[in-house]
Amino acid sequence: MKIFALPVLVLSVLFVHAGAETDYFRPVVNDVVFAGEYVSFGEAKPKFRPVHQEQPVYPAELLERRIEGFAVVAFLVELDGTTSQCQVAKASDVAFGEAAREAISKWKFTAPEFAGKRGPIAMRLPVDFTLAPEAADDIPAPAANGDKVAAR
């Protein structure tokens, strides 16, 4: 089994909802195993950037219960910039893991340019699922004369 250090990209998913419960979790921890040959980010020394980043859908059941959490998804960036072998490495709840895995499986990157060893590049991406407090009291009231009020 190949051991490697991966760069960490952080993606935060923010939804407006009040509070958070912590009494309901179905955690996930998996060993990540990729089929075939691949290289670590450090070995490849690649230059590439995302061109399409599908946003994860907050799981309805967890949103309704106001539960926050995270997932870490491991995947390969192929030579054409597509992602493959997306796997949930860790998640605070199975639904967060699946939502993050599904979104990242649709990501697209520019084709990597290599300064090191060529090959599909192994990556890990943490995804945070957080709820923003409802800010109904912060919404300005319409002006008396009907003019629009600028957002704060």
Model description:
There is one protein chain. The protein is α+β, with helices and mostly antiparallel strands. The chain has a single domain (11-134), classed as 2-Layer Sandwich (TolA/TonB C-terminal domain), CATH 3.30.2420. Helix content is 13%, strand content 32%. It has three helices and ten strands; from the N terminus they run βββαββαββαβββ. The protein has helices spanning 41-44, 60-64, 94-104; strands at 11-16, 28-29, 39-40, 46-47, 50-52, 69-77, 83-91, 108-109, 113-114, 121-132. The strands form three sheets. Strands 1, 2, 3, 6, 7 and 10 form a six-stranded mixed sheet that branches. Strands 4-9 form a two-stranded antiparallel sheet. A hairpin with a 5-residue loop joins strand 6 (69-77) and strand 7. The radius of gyration is 19 Å and the shape is elongated. The N and C termini lie far apart (53 Å). Mean pLDDT is 79; it is low at 1-22 and 135-152.
Could you give the topology of this structure?
Blueprint: E1 11-16, E2 28-29, E3 39-40, H1 41-44, E4 46-47, E5 50-52, H2 60-64, E6 69-77, E7 83-91, H3 94-104, E8 108-109, E9 113-114, E10 121-132
Parallel strand pairs: 1-10, 3-10
Antiparallel strand pairs: 2-7, 4-9, 5-8, 6-7, 6-10
